[in-house]
UniProtKB/TrEMBL annotation:
One of its GO terms (molecular function) is ATP binding. It comes from Hymenobacter rubripertinctus. PROSITE patterns: ABC_TRANSPORTER_1 (PS00211), ABC_TRANSPORTER_2 (PS50893). Residues 5-232 form the ABC transporter domain. Keywords: ATP-binding, Nodulation, Nucleotide-binding, Transport. This is ATP-binding cassette domain-containing protein. InterPro entries: AAA+_ATPase, ABC_transporter-like_ATP-bd, ABC_transporter-like_CS, ABC_transporter_ATP-binding, DrrA1/2-like_C, P-loop_NTPase. Pfam families: ABC_tran, DrrA1-3_C. Coiled coil: none annotated. It comes from the Bacteria. Belongs to the ABC transporter superfamily.
Length: 314
């Protein structure tokens, strides 16, 4: 299946600073695509090229195989990290104004606004000025403005910033519902738990270059280390040519917790059979690195050695 959006060898520089250096991406249709990277990696520069706020110096963006053109703006909804609402306008009036700019009729816009305000518990605030709303409510209003015209491609830059857990979960459910209805979601975030929960595919950009991409499952499989956590009761002394004990923890009442790595060619069932013959097994699970751990590892690997020992803030 052809990707709905492709970045082909995109390069962008601001003076002497190279923001993007030959970045290529294939974003599948009807998917949630995480665009990850440290601050200053180039994510926002790529988003601004896709949304035609700025242009690439080299390379191109394609929508369904067609070179990006002004007509594609109608198919894109963009929620920037820097929120931009008119504080003195009433919520309902502002949403109607923005919807009309996207080509909706007054009747269609009014119906959609009412439905979205109800879904996000904003109906009582429709006649209030934006400045009277809390930061979280303002963000919900801007989310509505982003998706009101039912774009095929929705770009969200830090969509959960400033939300309490309840509203973050509400927006998460709406994003998943939009994907299920056919939209393609591209979102940039530092919340790695959101990536684990929501993303079908991710790309990691660091120091202007793509350093990792693929499906979340395939990427985690790539970083598997054949390491297992074992919890149980009894006295476990593993001295075996096929296993290596990395950690051993004695607990109360004869319980233990061990971390064991398999040697090449050894299957998990081989370890489990050995354990069952030695102790009472209560839990047995593979330790696969999280996306956050993979993120930090790959970023550190691509940092110059002179700064690799410094503090990394994802």
């Amino acid at each position: 299946m052809q990707p709905i959006l492709q970045a082909l060898n995109v390069r962008k520089a601001y003076g002497q600073h190279v923001a993007l250096d030959g970045v290529s991406l294939d974003i599948p249709e009807r998917s949630i695509y995480g665009l990850l990277g440290p601050n200053g990696a180039g994510k926002t520069s790529l988003i601004r090229i896709i949304t035609q706020i700025t242009g690439a110096d080299e390379g191109e963006i394609r929508i369904r195989g067609e070179k990006l053109a002004p007509r594609h703006i109608a198919e894109i909804g963009y929620l920037p990290e820097e929120r931009g609402l008119y504080k003195k306008m009433k919520v309902g009036e502002q949403l109607l104004y923005l919807a009309r700019l996207k080509g909706l009729t007054r009747t269609d816009a009014t119906q959609r606004i009412k439905a979205w305000l109800q879904r996000l518990d904003l109906t009582p605030w429709a006649d209030k000025n934006v400045e009277d709303l809390s930061k979280g409510m303002q963000q919900k209003v801007q989310f509505v403005a982003t998706v009101l015209h039912e774009p095929k491609i929705i770009i969200l830059d830090e969509p959960f910033s400033g939300f309490d857990p309840i509203n973050a979960n509400l927006i998460k459910d709406e994003i998943l519902a939009l994907r299920d209805k056919g939209a393609t979601i591209i979102f940039s975030t530092h919340r790695m738990e959101s990536v684990e929960e929501m993303c079908d595919n991710i790309a990691l950009i660091n120091r202007s270059r793509k350093v990792l991409d693929g499906s979340v499952g395939a990427i985690r499989d790539t970083f598997r280390t054949q390491t297992y956590a074992v919890e149980g009761r009894g006295r476990l002394l593993v001295v075996h040519p096929d296993f290596e004990v990395l950690e051993h923890h004695e607990r109360e009442n004869g319980h233990f917790y061990d971390v064991i790595r398999l040697h090449a060619g050894t299957a998990p069932n081989d370890l489990l059979r050995y354990l069952i013959g030695q102790v009472e097994v209560h839990a047995f699970r593979e330790l696969i690195p999280s996306i956050n751990e993979i993120f930090i590892r790959r970023v550190r690997e691509t940092m110059p050695e002179t700064i690799r020992e410094g503090e990394l803030v994802p």
